[in-house]
Amino acid sequence: MWWMPMVSFLDEASFIQLFVKEMEIPASLRVDLDSRLVEDLDFDSLQMMLTVELLAELLGEPELFGEELDLLEALDTVRGVYSYYLTRSSMPPAEDEVGEIGGSVGPVPRRGLRGALVELKPPLGQHYGKLYEIATATEVAWRWRYGGAIPSYDEFIRTFEAGVLTQLVATRLGHDEPVGLVAVYNANPMNKHAYLAAVVEPCLVGSGAGAEAVALFCGYVFDVWDFEKLYLELPEYNLKQFASGLDRYLKLEGRLGGHSWYGGRRWDQLILAIYRDDFVCWQGAPAGERSKAHVVILDKDATSQPATVVPSGERF
């Protein structure tokens, strides 16, 4: 089989317009190729994941990581995303992407455990050292179950499965070293709910890799168990990582005032929930439509107009 390169690409202006529309960038923000996704457009981990999935949809590729290009380096500016799109569009497919794809045997979760950035695997003994390193890293320890405290390695191993129904490590595609962990704990089968937790190594915080790991894991959990919803319990300072999903994929169901202490002040503890029906609806939508699934718009004026698209060379 031979391959013919694509001859039709989205030009800069068309790509920016599509990106602004699908990512629902508010009108108050001006967007050009030099716009930085995090610093200028205030993207959180969920929006970075949706950017990855939009690229995968445009390119017709389920996986975007490759030795030729580093997607996480591209996801810095709109120019980087557009350059990645152009470069991948002109590359021949990998050998294992050519030809017929056979069916799989037995029940398989709808999205499986492999995404565009990461894949999920059962934790093994050789993973514990790296997982301990991630869980106690200064940059993320305060986000994880220990609330900033540093447990001994023995304590970490002893409590690793305490109250856990199931947990999987997240790795980069084609690699075995963990970059994160996702877990379901405190399961209540009678009332059909459980709690969800996730952590990723510091260099991937906000990249979308953690959000994708959670999405893959939720698909797996909802496929295997009949939970109606999964709770996330977190201090308020953790909300910024996925604030764009609040009232969309995440429902705020409780707030414990001044529940935790960190950084010299008290913080509320938030109880969020991911509902099965909302997740299945979002999961089945095209990548570009996922930011609109089950949206509860609190301020219509802030989202009814698209962001201003600034042509190349007219950066303000």
List keywords for this structure.
316 residues; alpha+beta; Non-ribosomal Peptide Synthetase Peptidyl Carrier Protein, Chain A; Aminopeptidase; 2 domains; 7-stranded mixed β-sheet; two-stranded parallel sheet; 10 helices; 9 strands; 28% helix; disordered N terminus; disordered C terminus
Structure write-up:
- With 316 residues, the protein is of the alpha+beta class.
- The chain has two domains: 12-93, Orthogonal Bundle (Non-ribosomal Peptide Synthetase Peptidyl Carrier Protein, Chain A), CATH 1.10.1200; 118-302, 3-Layer(aba) Sandwich (Aminopeptidase).
- It is built from ten helices and nine strands.
- It has helices spanning 12-22, 45-59, 71-74, 78-89, 128-135, 138-141, 153-159, 209-224, 276-283, 300-303; strands at 30-31, 118-121, 164-172, 178-188, 193-200, 229-235, 251-262, 265-275, 308-309.
- Helix 8 (209-224) links the parallel strand 5 and strand 6.
- Helix 2 packs parallel to helix 4 (78-89) and helix 2 (45-59) crosses helix 8.
- The protein is globular, with a radius of gyration of 20 Å.
- It starts with 11 loop residues before the first helix and ends in a 7-residue tail after the last strand.
- Residues 1-7, 93-110 and 285-316 have low confidence and may be disordered.
